[in-house]
Inverse folding.
């Protein structure tokens, strides 16, 4: 009886081993048939991939840390009553206030996601939270100063800030139609309860608790940042930008190409103005402006992080509405500008 069981067990174990050996042999045979130049090309691509990934990740990590730290401080020092006093629940004032909150929090598109999720937990209205989510990566002081350094205190800066504010408010108003936040937001287990004894904690205890929350959210959202950075690096490595640039002519096509680059490059909003400056000689004012407006709202890594806060249909609205509005804005500027 025992020998039969042992025999059956060995058969079950040997099958995966045989499959693994066959796969290895096939890989070795296929690799021997490929020219050496292929492996040289692949090695170069992998080096580019690693460089691009590290560039995106290292660029975004400090702002994700800043956003999660702000989230921890909000959780420990802000209660629902304060939120109700500061933010109106009427759709238009809430959306405008939420968008202008971006001037207070110096967070980019990575750090704003965990902070917005925490603010929702504290009772921030949907319209205000969505407007803040989309506007903060452009309206924060660091991005305004970096844009001014690249383009000066001129039309590009003014239109970037103005259009970002308008789009954020419009999308916030669209979300204000939904009265039940549970139809928009995904449930989060670690935020399902309130901290009833926060008032009894000392300042040092609250700071310590805020750091614990910061660490938890940093590692939670950080893994999605890594996935987004890997995808963005892969697309940049294996889809040549020259292919997009060669078709980027015309008042409509140029805007579409720049919107595609905004998603593909996934550049942090704190430095994207200097990248956009390199396109000024090749692309029109409207297409560069659309890149600067849409990029901080939607890119590969932010879409993945949005999906951890919002339900699928809501994520689609967060992507499509800013895309259409940025596209129309860029086309209008291209036709109106001399």
């Amino acid at each position: 009886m025992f020998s039969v069981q042992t025999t059956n067990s060995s058969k079950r174990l040997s099958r995966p081993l045989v499959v693994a050996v066959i796969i290895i042999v096939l890989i070795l045979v296929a690799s021997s048939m490929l020219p050496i130049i292929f492996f040289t090309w692949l090695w170069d691509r992998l080096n580019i991939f690693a460089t691009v990934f590290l560039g995106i990740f290292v660029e975004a990590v400090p702002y994700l840390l800043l956003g999660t730290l702000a989230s921890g401080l909000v959780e420990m020092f802000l209660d629902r009553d304060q939120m109700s006093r500061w933010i109106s629940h009427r759709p238009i004032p809430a959306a405008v206030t939420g968008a202008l909150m971006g001037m207070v929090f110096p967070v980019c598109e990575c750090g704003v996601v965990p902070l917005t999720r925490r603010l929702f937990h504290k009772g921030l209205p949907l319209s205000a939270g969505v407007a803040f989510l989309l506007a903060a990566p452009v309206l924060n002081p660091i991005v305004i100063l970096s844009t001014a350094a690249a383009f000066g205190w001129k039309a590009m800066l003014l239109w970037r800030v103005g259009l970002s504010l308008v789009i954020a408010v419009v999308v916030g108003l669209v979300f204000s139609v939904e009265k039940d936040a549970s139809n928009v937001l995904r449930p989060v287990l670690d935020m399902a309860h309130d901290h009833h004894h926060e008032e009894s904690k000392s300042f040092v205890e609250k700071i310590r608790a805020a750091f614990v929350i910061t660490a938890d959210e940093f590692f939670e959202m950080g893994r999605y940042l890594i996935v987004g950075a890997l995808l963005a690096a892969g697309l940049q490595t294996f889809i040549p930008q020259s292919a997009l640039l060669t078709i980027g002519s015309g008042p409509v096509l140029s805007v579409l190409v720049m919107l595609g680059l905004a998603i593909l490059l996934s550049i942090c909003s704190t430095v994207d103005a200097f990248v956009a400056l390199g396109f000024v000689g090749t692309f029109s004012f409207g297409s560069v402006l659309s890149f600067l407006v849409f990029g901080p709202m939607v890119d590969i890594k932010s879409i993945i992080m949005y999906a951890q806060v919002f339900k699928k249909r809501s994520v689609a609205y967060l992507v499509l509405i800013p895309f259409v509005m940025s596209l129309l804005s860029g086309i209008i500027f291209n036709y109106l500008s001399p």
Summary: Residues 278 and 288 are 10 Å apart (CA to CA).
